[in-house]
Amino acid sequence: AKGAGRNQSCFYLPKMQQRILERVEMDSDLRRAMMNHEFLLHFQPQWNAERKMVGVEALVRWLHPVKGMIPPGQFIPFAEESRLILPLGDWVLMAACQTKARWLKEGYLDDVVMAVNVSAMQFAQEDFIDKVGKALAHTLVPPHLIQLELTESMLVHDQEDVIQKMRSLKELGVLISLDDFGTGYSSLSYLQQLPIDQLKIDKSFVARVMDSKRGASIAASIIGLGHNLGMEVIAEGVEEDAQFQWLKQQGCDLFQGYGLSRPLEEKILIGSFVKQV
Ligand code: C2E
Ligand code: CA
Ligand code: CA
Ligand code: CA
């Protein structure tokens, strides 16, 4: 047994060391990236049933000097582990508000809502509400044009604290969307107490609407639930026209996905969707 144990550690230790090394490297790389302003936002349009663009979701990217464009799935988890998600999240919030303010100043996409992702750790900060207030005050963006995307998983902790914070956000006047809806475990009685403006059907459900009766009924139920609670419902991950048509028929309010538009650089977004005069 002893021998087996030794063999095991010989096998696992290098792997673990490698993982630790990777984390340390990523950590210093991320810190450097923050200092060097290597992050940027792309914007994915959100459409209503008449195919009018009514929102954009700001999605962070890392333009690494050697590795090129890195998607958030490859660095957000590390940023969360090292708490660098806090300064990164501050930057995203401010940059999204500044971008929206600039568009307003230049007369672009006036009624288009800017949706901003918020991580659990960011939301849990005691001064999160202050930070949102400061971003609004600093940029002078009308609060109803900013929508914060929270996820179900961040709502499970201290329910009283969550309710208080969400109420404070509503007092500031921003919109609240519940992202990845259906993948978490929030109870309906709890949901009912939260001042949520929008439910976002997770793309894993959208992907299944045309596959089976069950897949379809899950999405239809979320739409019904959201509407019964007085919320707007948006579907993410809409890739096919058949999905768009079906969701639209079910009364889904808004749509986002590669089938309608990919996340775009600001220049391309403005170039494609602002009529030049
Ligand atoms: P999310 O908030 O669920 O964002 C939607 C993701 O789905 C985006 O990936 C988007 O590009 C992708 N997507 C859009 N349409 C389609 C589609 O039709 N099919 C499929 N398969 N995917 C689609 P992205 O930009 O790689 O972001 C991944 C995740 O990283 C986001 O998921 C979000 O959780 C996180 N993230 C992105 N930006 C930020 C940010 O600024 N702050 C925080 N905290 N998290 C962010
Ligand atoms: Ca999101
Ligand atoms: Ca989502
Ligand atoms: Ca998702």
Beta fraction: 15-25%
Number of helices, counting only DSSP H or I runs of 4 residues or more: 11
* SSE string, helices as H and strands as E: HEEEHHEHHEHEHEHHEHEH
Q: Residue-averaged pLDDT, rounded? A: 92
Number of strands: 9
Helix share, percent: 40-55%
Low-confidence stretches: 1-5
Distance between the termini: 79 Å
Report on the biggest sheet: 8 strands, mixed, barrel
Shape: globular
- Spatial strand sequence of the major β-sheet: 1-2-4-5-6-7-8-9
The assigned structural class equals: alpha/beta
Rg: 21 Å
Ligand inventory: ligand C2E, calcium ion
Features:
9 strands; alpha/beta; 19% strand; 277 residues; disordered N terminus; binds ligand C2E; 11 helices; binds calcium ion
Describe this structure in words.
The protein is of the alpha/beta class and 277 residues long. Helix content is 49%, strand content 19%. The protein has 11 helices and 9 strands. The chain has helices spanning 2-35, 76-81, 85-106, 120-124, 128-139, 159-172, 188-193, 203-206, 213-228, 241-249, 266-273; strands at 39-48, 53-64, 68-70, 113-117, 146-151, 175-181, 198-201, 232-235, 254-255. It has an 8-stranded mixed β-barrel, surrounded by 4 helices. Strand 6 (175-181), helix 7 and strand 7 form a beta-alpha-beta unit. It is globular. Mean pLDDT is 92; it is low at 1-5. The protein binds ligand C2E and calcium ion (3 copies). One calcium ion binds at residues 57, 117, 149, 179. Residues 57, 117, 149, 179 line the site of one calcium ion.
Concise description?
The chain is built from 11 helices and 9 strands. It has helices at 2-35, 76-81, 85-106, 120-124, 128-139, 159-172, 188-193, 203-206, 213-228, 241-249, 266-273, and strands at 39-48, 53-64, 68-70, 113-117, 146-151, 175-181, 198-201, 232-235, 254-255. The longest helix is centred in the first third of the chain and has 34 residues, at 2-35.
